[in-house]
Amino acid sequence: MEDILNEIISLEHEIENSNKDKLWRFNFGFFNENDKLKFVTPFLSIKLQDEGKLNIRYPEWKKACVVLTHDIDLPVHSLLNLIKLLFKDFKKKYYKNAYYRILWFFNKQKDLWRNFNYIMDLEEKYSAKSSFYFMSTRDTHKLYNIEKFENDIKNISNRWFEIWLHWGYDNSWKDLNILMEEKQRLEKCLWKKIIWIRQHYLRYDHNKTLVNDKKAWFLYDTTLGYNDYIWFRNGMWHIFNPIDLNTWKLIKWFYEIPLVIMDCTLWNYMKLDFNEAWQEVKSILDKVISIWWTVSILWHNDQFDDTFHPRSWELYEKILIYLKNNNVWMTSGEECLKYLKETNQI
User: Fold this and answer.
1) pLDDT(2) > 70
2) What is the dihedral of CA 279, 282, 284, 286, to 10 degrees?
3) Which of 64, 103, 243, 337 could anchor a disulfide with 110, C-beta 3.0 to 4.6 Å?
4) Residue 256 has pLDDT above 70, yes or no
5) Closest CA relative to residue 264, chosen from 225, 222, 322
6) Could you tell me which of 345, 334, 339, 324 has the C-alpha nearest to residue 63?
7) Could you report how far apart the first and last alpha carbons of the chain are, in Å?
8) 148: Cβ contacts below 8 Å, ≥ 6 apart
């Protein structure tokens, strides 16, 4: 069992498969049909649970834990985005959205994508708490200067939501020096050590990513999921220690939380409509709830703009309602890990 576990945790099956997309990612679509059926099933979590090696319990007898996360790829519109969406606003008669988009010219605080308070208010309505992953890159995406959003970051932190690092657009996913610069830049804005990370585009280099994370003193990651398919990537739907491929040993102080649902995967890759997306999401949530597991979901801030993607915000709220009605702990990554450590469950 241990050999199989190490093989799956290390993603050895992906290393042996030379296929990569243009962003150097291993996609779910690269599997043959037999492997697709295998890896959408959380077979390792089930096996560990059957053997009595996995028995997680949560506060107040919650049935499962869903870690809520938001990647802030763009905290405000670019001018090009603004013009395109204004045309859509008027075409769809979304005049309120058009009004706030026009205000963007005069008050950047009114940008529809600078909607962090809205997201936090929505989650608090359902007793939920999330983590916001901000970029602090200075490579190609000049619009995103993290210092301009320092007040937003402090406001999120003051409301007891979490701020963590989202690796940048270009080279920080594979370059330790750039990663350290981004980490320090965000820490300077927040006046707090950054120990959580997720890579942009879910990029993951099997040989470099974990090594760089260790050297940069990150402790937690929520990157490992398929960009082109929901469900999870290595047969496990619980928090686990990844393997350092240089030593083939578990990194016992570093934790990965499975990413099982991402908004743009539903719309852009799987091409689902609202009802189809909900049925897929519900099937995952039902599985998680039935066996008391811990997973994460990702909803970008721009997905709360109904013009940019219709009804995406509605699906997110439907998820919150369903989880609350099923007594699921909806929390941030740090709160989850803190509790599991204090109760000696990891």
Assistant:
1) no
2) -140
3) 103
4) yes
5) 225
6) 324
7) 20
8) none
Q: In the 3-class helix/strand/coil scheme, how is the chain assigned residue by residue? A: CHHHHHHHHCCHHHHCCCCCCCCCCCCHHHCCHHHHHHHCCCHHHHHHHHCCCCCCCCHHHCCCEEEEEEEECCCCCCHHHHHHHHHHHHHHCCHHHHHHHHHCCCCHHHCCCCCHHHHHHHHHHCCCCCEEEECCCCCCCCCCCHHHHHHHHHHHHHCCCEEEEECCCCCCCCCHHHHHHHHHHHHHHHCCCCCEEECHHHCCCCCCHHHHHHHCCCCEECCCCCCCCCCCCCCCCCCECCEECCCCEECCCCEECCEEEEHHHHHHHCCCCHHHHHHHHHHHHHHHHHHCCEEEEECCHHHHCCCCCCCHHHHHHHHHHHHHHCCCEEECHHHHHHHHHHCCCC
Distance of alpha carbon 128 from alpha carbon 331, whole angstroms: 6
Distances (CA, A) of 335 to 45, 57, 65, 152, 193: 22, 14, 11, 21, 16
Q: Which of 53-57, 76-80, 168-172 has the lowest mean pLDDT?
A: 168-172
Q: What is the CA radius of gyration of the chain?
A: 20
Residue 197 — φ and ψ, nearest 5°? -150, 150
Q: What is the token pair recorded at 322?
A: 């369903």
In angstroms, the CA 88 to CA 116 distance is 23
CA–CA dist 114, 75 (Å, integer) = 5
* pLDDT band for position 170 (cuts 50, 70, 90): low
